[in-house]
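Protein modeling request. Please complete all fields; requests missing the sequence field cannot be processed.
Requester role: graduate student
Desired output: 3D structure, token encoding
Chains: 1
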Amino acid sequence: MRVDILTCLPRLLESPFNDSILKRAQTKGLVEVVVHDLREYATNKHRTTDDYAFGGGAGMVMMIEPIDRCLETLKTQRAYDEVIYMSPDGELFNQSVANELSLRKNMILLCGHYKGVDERVREHLITREISIGNYVLSGGELAAAVVADAIIRLLPGVLNDETSALTDSFQDGLVAPPVYTRPADYRGWKVPEILLSGHEAKINEWKHEKALERTQKRRPGLLDG
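Delivered output (225 residues):
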């Protein structure tokens, strides 16, 4: 998989992709993450990527031309399955969307900034809009990192135990059950005996019951319908 991220603030994305699981995935050649500075596609000496909004109003707007020029350049090099704009009013990102996008080969994530992008970008240049929640960030860079992380960890070979991602919260529509590790008894706080029994069927039954119980208590909306 290849993920291209378009931004006017590339340094914001240095850390998320240079450590831990995402770094190892790139080192293994399982994914390629390339960050593109939109200022390199600006047309004036000041490398301007934003301008005032027509009609007035507070805040600046990302210009269409640098974005379009960057997209045109990338599309001459490979075909892209998705060109995704990170937007507060896009479809809400969830595990199902992450699963779907993990099957793509090449995708572009466009990071908004300021008051957003020229509306013509949204009308003509992208295939999808995604939001990571009902709130506003200073820019789309952190959102792009969240989406990329959720997708990349699902790729075969990224996690040491490939079954790990299949037991994450939300994969079966429930949050994950409680988990424990050694010591089995700490300050009198004991691990449930069933988890020490070695009886796989009963352990799985316990995990499902606890996942359902926790979902009903903490995220009941997941059980609607």
